[in-house]
Amino acid sequence: MATTNLQYILNPFPRPTFSPKLLATKAPKMVFKCGCSNNSSTRVGEDVFSLTSSSECDIDYLGQSTKGDLNVNLQHLETFGLDGEATLEGPIEQVARLEAEEAGGLLRELGITSPSAARLSSRGIFCSRTLNLRSISAIGYDMDYTLIHYNVMAWEGRAYDYCMENLKNMGFPVEGLAFDPDLVIRGLVIDKQKGNLVKADRFGYVKRAMHGTKMLSTQAVSEIYGRELVDLRKESQWEFLNTLFSVSEAVAYMQMVDRLDDGAIPADLGPLDYKGLYKAVGKALFRAHVEGQLKSEIMSKPELFVEPDPELPLALLDQKEAGKKLLLITNSDYQYTDKMMRHSFNRFLPNDICWRDLFDMVIVSARKPEFFQMSHPLYEVVTSEGLMRPCFKARTGGLYSGGSAQMVENFLNIHGDEILYVGDHIYTDYNALILSRGHRATVIELINQKEVVGDLFNQLRLALQRRIKGRPAQTLAATNMDDRELTESMQKLLIVMQRLDEKIAPLLEADGELFNKRWGFLSRAGLWDKSHLMRQIEKYADIYTSRVSNFLNYTPFMYFRSQEQTLAHDSYSHDRSEQNGE
């Protein structure tokens, strides 16, 4: 998100001076009759406006709760010299157009990027389902890869190192292997039965695949998978790479598949198939995680593994001061959580605020995803060493271990739709998509050319077929073509299409290389379709973004409205409207 020193938005600033060009207009505008004095000691914001409470809220025309909306408090207007009448000079469409123009100008004068402009940035927040942030009472944050941004090469690289060391101790041949961060991207799926790594489209059809560390041809992918769908519910076969350590685990597994295929794995490790090999790699990585090898190293030198984000703590401070209850819910233990949060947050917070001051509740060792599905005992962490005692009633500002989402909702006395859970940011490929626009435009232009040429070729082919059967062609012009003219035209068009295919094929193969040479774009599967990861995000996430600090440009009062979803026949409707002059 390209903005100018966003942190200043958080601080009080003088009332902006409105330039004459914004107000000197005869167009319709909203007028309040006001006789209030500048010397009034009353706080206008508190008495003129009121918040819609949970008991008073309604559902708006987009199906969102109006809880948290600001209202004009009419019964208090007389206190400030207002007669309670507000008039609009002109139709609301004209008034709104003027107000929007003035608002846009004022945003530019203040140096604030508007949400509509921010959506065009790689730091934008993108909406899958309409969400009124004002109606959200509590926001629960994950820590790793959400509030804490790790250097992927450093973090995943060291996780890989510990995993391979444990595999070596188990008797696996790991000599000569090294971490390759470009081999795997998150959002891919491991086929544990075949030793493959696949990229599927939104429907689950496999579009690209790799066996071991070798990419498979399009023909091989078709022969292996055909119409088989990736079904993430079949956990015995498919493993979705969307969790912590997933990149390092997948790199290690695909490299060990090569060793298994080469017959390099000792027989005394037992008869191993691809699924058994996956379990062995997972066990080696799990040991590194549970035994604390990696986290101990990170705690000793956090500056080597953590990428600081000065805007992130300020975005959370905005939300807290807006009345949101903030929760930190992490699977990490308390000592690691405290060390990482102090390193990443405290130095960027004003007025000696520490990271704990931001959160109404902190839950460590939460055991997600079970935290959202099952109920575990709740313990209170009572010492800096992490000692705990059983807890039966949570308190504001408390530090806890275990528990469940239901316990949190009961403690806060709010419903599930009033809580927004934020977790595990995705690695956005937005910048790569922007930089690839020229490449993609070239491919699309060539495909469109082939489509037009192909349309004519198909019509001539049908005319030839009818001629052979002794029937007239579709049109008089095609009927009047002699045999030689018809066949020569078809030959020329066929050669053009073949040459176009030779040009298009490598361009399509290279599509997405700016993000990853093997797998292409994270969000795309082929030129036109969404990836399976993108479908999962749309299915389960109301909004998605590259990092939490992107909230800083949107304010805690943002109404996120989902964009129009295009359908296959929308282009037909648009073309028909243009033909009719609409």
From TrEMBL:
SUPFAM superfamilies: HAD-like
Family assignment from sequence similarity: Belongs to the 5'(3')-deoxyribonucleotidase family.
Coiled coil region boundaries: none
Database matches in Gene3D superfamilies: HAD superfamily/HAD-like
Record-level Gene Ontology MF annotations: 5'-nucleotidase activity; metal ion binding
Key words of the record: Hydrolase, Magnesium, Metal-binding
Protein name per Swiss-Prot or TrEMBL: HAD-superfamily hydrolase isoform 3
